Amino acid sequence: MPGDKRGRQKMIPAMREYRASQTYGTQVNPATNQTTFHTGIDLVKPSYADIAAFAQGVVVFASYGQTGTGVGGYGNTVILRDRHDYLHMYAHLTDYRVKVGDQVLAGSVVGREGMTGQATGQHLHYEVRRDGPSFGYGLHTDPVLYMDQYFTTELKDPAHACGISYDGMLLPFIGGIVEGKSFLPVRALAEAVGKGAQVEWNNVIRLAGINGTELLSTFLLDAKAYAWSRELARALGLDIRWDDAAKVVQLTMAP
Ligand SMILES: [Zn+2]
């Protein structure tokens, strides 16, 4: 798939826990040479795996998608509306665990992977649409690029900044809170507290690493690698605490 490489590069950490079986955009059937447009991305985990929300939002639909409603063919479907008035659709679920009106945080389970509706195997069809009539039917956008932009906006937002301290001393750079998790700059932190730790960059899988340990939560912001603070602390052998009042990630030498 031509779009696969680009799509994978931009995936937010939670999305990389899946294997992408079909990307967003025009698909060519090699047998017939006919083209179709895939309005979401197909993501695969082991059968019946829990499906967690990629972005927080309020549930506006949790039901079986009936023909003519804007979600026909998608089987058991959960739709969340995010704070930017975009709809996040989780389709073909075996079952759903939320109801209309629920506030759902990123990382919360909305249902289990399945193949209800028009699906030939278990997978998650994840689609992002601008809100509109019939649940934004036809107003789809590339979900990988949308979530990359969403994540970038959150991480850059000064209101989401967090401090970082090491053994009680505040470090001269900051991290950011994205959907309840703090992300810290990998190289700056390793140089400040890593005691000679080697920072690596794998350009094929687009992951940063420390001393040979890949950081699966890597996210690139302005060509700088960030990673989830807990994974980063583990790779650096540090203890970590979160000071919620001061909004500071506290790192200390592990005993
Ligand atoms: Zn699909």
Offer a concise description of the structure:
This protein is of the alpha+beta class. Helices cover 16% and strands 41% of the residues. The protein contains 5 helices and 24 strands.
Please give a structural write-up.
The protein is α+β, with helices and mostly antiparallel strands and 255 residues long. It has two domains: 4-153, Glucose Permease (Domain IIA) (Distorted Sandwich), CATH 2.70.70; 158-253, no CATH class. The protein is built from five helices and 24 strands. The chain starts with a helix and ends with a strand. Bound molecules: zinc ion. Zinc ion is lined by residues 22, 38, 40, 42, 125.
Helix and strand topology:
Elements: H1 4-10, E1 19-22, E2 25-28, E3 35-38, E4 41-44, E5 50-52, E6 57-64, E7 76-81, E8 86-93, E9 95-96, E10 103-104, E11 109-112, E12 124-130, H2 133-136, E13 140-141, H3 143-156, E14 161-166, E15 169-170, E16 175-178, E17 181-185, H4 186-193, E18 199-202, E19 207-210, E20 213-214, E21 219-221, E22 224-228, H5 229-236, E23 238-243, E24 248-253
Parallel strand pairs: 14-24
Antiparallel strand pairs: 1-4, 2-3, 4-12, 5-11, 6-7, 6-10, 7-8, 8-12, 9-11, 12-13, 14-15, 14-16, 16-17, 17-22, 18-19, 19-20, 21-22, 23-24
GO molecular function: metalloendopeptidase activity
Domain M23ase beta-sheet core: 37-132
Pfam families: Peptidase_M23 (PF01551)
| Structural classification | alpha+beta
What fold name goes in the CATH topology slot of the largest domain?
Glucose Permease (Domain IIA)
Biggest beta sheet attributes: 8 strands, antiparallel
Mean pLDDT: 93
Radius of gyration (Å): 20 Å
Number of strands: 24
Mass-distribution shape: elongated
Estimate the helix proportion, in percent. 10-25%
Q: Number of domains in the coordinates?
A: 2
Bound molecules: zinc ion
Percentage of β-strand residues:
35-45%
Identify low-pLDDT runs.
1-7
Our count of helices gives: 5
Measured distance between first and last alpha carbons: 48 Å
The CATH class of the largest domain, by name, is Mainly Beta
